[in-house]
Amino acid sequence: MLLKFEQRTEPSALMSYLSPVFAVGLMLASGMLLFLFLGKSPVEGFRVFFLHPLRDTYGICELFLKATPLMLCAVGVSVGFRANVWNIGAEGQLLVGSLAAGAVALHFPNSTSSLLLPAMVVAGALGGMAWAAIPSWLRTRFNANEILTSLMLVYVAQLVVSWLVHGPWKDPEGFNFPQTRMFQAKAMLPVLVAGTRVNAALLIAIGALIIGWVFMNRSFMGYQMKVAGQAENASRYAGFSAKHTIWLGMLAGGAMAGIAGMAEVSGPMGQITEHISPGYGFAAMIVAFVGRLNPIGIFFSSLLLALLYLGGEQAQQYLNLPYSISNVFQGMLLFFLLASDVFINFRPRLIGRKK
Amino acid sequence: MIHESSPTPRLAIKGMRKVYPAVVANDNVDLTVMPGEIHAVVGENGAGKSTLMKAIYGAIRPDAGEIRWEGKVVTIRNPAHARELGIGMVFQHFSLFETLTVAQNVALALPGKFDLAGLARRITEVSDRYGLPIDPRRLVHALSVGERQRVEIIRCLLQEPRLLILDEPTSVLTPQAVRKLFETLRQLAAEGCSILYISHKLDEIQELCHTATILRGGKVTGTCIPSQETPKTMARMMIGEDLPVIHHGEPGEGGEVRLRIDGLCHAAEDPFGTSLRNVHLEVRSGEIVGIAGVSGNGQQELLKAISGEQPLTERKAVQVCGVQAGRMGPARRRGLGMCFVPEERLGRGAVPRLTLTENALLTAHRKGMLTSGMIKFRAARRFAEECIARFDVRCGGAGSEAKSLSGGNLQKFIVGREIMQEPKLLVLAQPTWGVDVGAASFIRRSLLELRAKGTAILVISEELDELFEICDRLVVIAKGTLSPAKVTSQTGVEEIGIWMSGMWPESAAAGEPSHVA
Hints:
Chain A is mainly alpha-helical.
C-alpha cells in the first residue's frame, strides 16, 4: 500500500482556522503520552503543566508577562511573513534591541527624566531595526536569502551580548558575574498589578497588535504586502515596489523584536545578562503561524506559548522533569500545526500497489 | 465490456447540479457524447461550461447527478482518476509548472517511470504530426500563451485519450494552425476518440462539430446539429437575443500622440525570449492601433516594456503622453494616464484569493480609494460594484474572490476596472481571449466608446478578426520587430497574414512615418 497526497480542489477556509485547534489537541494528547513514558501520571502531568501555572493572580500575571515579548515579536514578523519576507532572526533583533535600550539606561545612571523610558523604547526599536536592516540590504542589493542571513545574525548578536557582559559592560561590583549594573528605578517599566511582574510592556504589545491589525487590514501598504505575498506578478503589474515590501517586512519585525528586548531588560530582569531571552524570537514564529498571521490570533497563541514556558518551569519544580520539556511541547505544536495545514490543501489516499 | 454493436455512449450525464456560494453553476444538466463524436458545448461566460467540464474531469465534485462512462456509473474522484478512465482535458487556464521544462511537465501527467529523453522524442513526434511545434527542453515560464496551449494539447494526446475535452482551444492559434488542429481533431474522432469542444466561435463549431449542447445560466437550453443552423440562430439560443451590431464609426482624425515608442531595443533576459529590435510606434488619441502577430514573436516583451514591468535603460524609448517614461516603473507610468490589461488574468491582472473589491484597489486606488495611506473600503466597494454593474460581470457580488469568476467574467472586470480609470492611453493584451461572443462584443464596443472619447488605445491580439473589427491602423510584430503601420481599410487578412511570418516589404519599412493619416 502506498500513501499518496492529492491536492484538494476546494480547500476549506474554516479548516484553516480550525487547524491550530487540532494542533493544540494533538499536542496535548502526545504530551500526556510523553508524561506516561516518563513514568508520570498523565493527569497529574497535565494538571501541573497546564493548570497549575494559572492557579492565582500571580500566575496569570506571569502568563501575560511571558506572552508580551511573544506578541511583540510575532506581530512584527507576521507583517513580513504575509508578504513572503522570511525574517527568522527576531531573536537576534530582540537581543540587539535590549542592548540599545540598555545602553541608554547605563549611560544615564542618575537621570530622573520621565523621558528616559520612552527613549529606551525608541532605542530598543532602532536597535532591532538596525539588526534587521542588514539582511534587508543584503537581500535587496545582492539578492541574498534573508532566511539564512537573518538566522546567522542571531548567533552574532548572542556573541555580542556575551562579549559586552563579560567585558566592557560588566558590573565592576558584580563579583565578576557576567552581567551589567542593575538599571536605576527610572529606567524600569512600571508594574501594572502590584505584587506581580507584569508591566507596561503588555500595553505596548497590545497597542502593537492593534496597530498591526490596522496596518494589515486597513492600510494601503499592508494591502500591497498582501498582494506581494499572494501574487508577485500582480504586484509587479500594479507597480508596487518589491524593495519596499522587503524593507518594511524586515524592519517591522526588527522594531517589534527590539521593543520586546527592551521590555525584558527593563522589566523582569533590570539588567543585561547572557540570558535575556529563552528563545522568544524563535517561539514567536510558532506564535505567528498558530495565530494564522493575524493579530487577533496572535494574542491567543502567544498566551498558549507563554503557558508552555510556565508549564515547563512547573514541570521542573514539581515533576522533576528537565526544563527542555517546554521546547518539546513547542516543537510538537509546530509539527502538528504544519501537519494539520497539509490536510487543508491535500487529501491523503491509500492506493494499492499496481500488480 | 462494450458490445461492439450496441451504441453505448462514451459519456452520459444526467441531472448534473453544482452550486457555488451565490451561484448555481449547473442545474439539471444532461449531456450525451457518442464514441467518435465531436460535441460542442456552447454558452456565454458563466453559463456553466467550465463547471460542467471540471466535473467530468474530476476537478470538482458535483452536488447531484449521475455520470456514466462507457455505460457504467462512475464517481470521478480527481483528475488522475479521470485520466485513468481515458479522459484528457486542455484547460482554458493552464495547469503547467512554470519552473519545469515542457518535457518535465508532460512527464508529471503521465503514469509510470520518468524517461525524459524518450519522452522528449515522443513529444517531438506528436508535435510534428499535429502541427504543434514546441521544443521539449524549453522552460514553461518562458512560453507564450499560445505555446503553453500547445503543451497542454500534446500532453493530452500522449495519453491516447478516449474523450478529449478542449476549452476554447483555438483562441490563440493562427488561422493555419486552427485548420491543422481541426484536421487533428477529425483524425482523432475518426479513430474513435470522442471530443468535447467548448467554444464561442460559432463558425468554427459549424465547421467542426457533429452536435452541440447549448447552455445558458447553468441550464441546457437546447441541442442542435450545427451544420443545420446558422451562427445567428445559435447565438440566439446562447444569449437569448440577437447580438448587437458593432458600429465602428469614422476612422479617428488622430489627435495628439499619447504613446510613442522610439527606437526601442531590448535584449531579452530570458534565454528563450524574443529580443526587441528597433521598434517604432505611435498611438494617438482617438484611435485604436492593433498589433497582430503569432504568439511568441516579442508581444510579451513589448508589453512589459510599455507597461513598465520591465524598465528600460533608455528614457526616450517609451514616451507616455509626451513624457519620457523609459526608466519609470508601472506605478509612475500609470500616474501619467496609462492603463493596462495584461493577458494573464489570474495572478497578474487580478489576485486570485482576494475579493473583487480588493482587486479594484490593485490599480484603481488612485480613484479616491485612499486617505493618507489608509484604504477607504467603502469607496473601493462602490467602484467594484459599479464595475460589476456597468460591465455585466456575472459573480456573487463585490465580495467574491477573483478566482471564483469564469475567465470571461474576470476579464470583463479587469477591462472595466481599467476603463473606469478614464485612461489617456489604454494598452490591452488579448482583450477577448477565451471570452464568449456576447462578452467579447461588449468589450469591443466599450473600447470603441472609449476611443470616441479621445483615449488612445493599443491592442495586442492574436485574433485577426478582432483586430480588423476594431482597429484604425494595424501593425504586425514578427521576431521582435514591428512592420510599418497600415490603415485597416487599406489592407486585408491575406496581406497581414503574410506579414505575420515576418515578410513585409523593406521599402515600406524604410523611412515611412508610422502614422498614416
